Amino acid sequence: MIIGERATAGWRFVGNVVYSREMYQHLHAVILRTVRHSDTRLIVTTYTREAGRVTFALPDSSTAAGNRRRAMLMPLSVVECVGDIRPGREIHRLRDLRLSPPLPRLHLNPAKSAIAMLLADVLATALREPQPDSLVYDFIAGGAMMLDGMTAGVANFHICFLIRLQQLLGIAPDMSGYRPGTQLDLAEGTVRAGAAGPAAANSVLSVDDTAAAAALSRMHWRNLHLFKLSRDQRNAIIDTLLRYYTLHDIPLATLKSLSTLRQLF
User: Which CATH number fits the domain that encloses residue 156?
Assistant: First the structure.
């Protein structure tokens, strides 16, 4: 307990001011987006294990403390903090911010940093609801830690992440009916037999692209380094994945962070 404060029956007293204890929450969070609101304030979008998507306001300055704070707010940083969560507010207060754990390689490595930026952009759009989902949080935080320590297969990490994220969001295509010669309907999220006309016109993948999608659906953290893909193939896969998300009400048609990644991989 902090000196000068006392807690009784669910309430917290600071001097003569009474606060509901529920306002203060210890949170595990992943940083999704940081925007400068003014010369003295940052707006930080997070996804937390305990409260889902939460947006915080943080003071900013050019001091050493301000520089340290900004360093903890990089995309996909994993932090612990105390949130002052108040019903009815869209932006909340945050304090006692610390990295948990530090991920030094994630932001010092240009390739990993570019991947983190893209995935954070995707998540900031995809995770719109405030309701918490511990499985989603654990996947994101675990993925950030995985990327930080990864030495092989880094170029495929974002592909694997986006494929696995579809499952957690409940929009993954049903590939159980795949057979050679079938085609994946991106809008319906299912495969079907027979020619379906021009693929680009009706969101149905070609037979060859459907075969590639079936193979990619088996990608996971332990085998992603085994997928040998060219830059053109990676770009085509990412374009298809983002198109699929957009068709399923997660608009990812234009992401500024994608251009940097295209140049690297």
Answer: 2.40.50.140
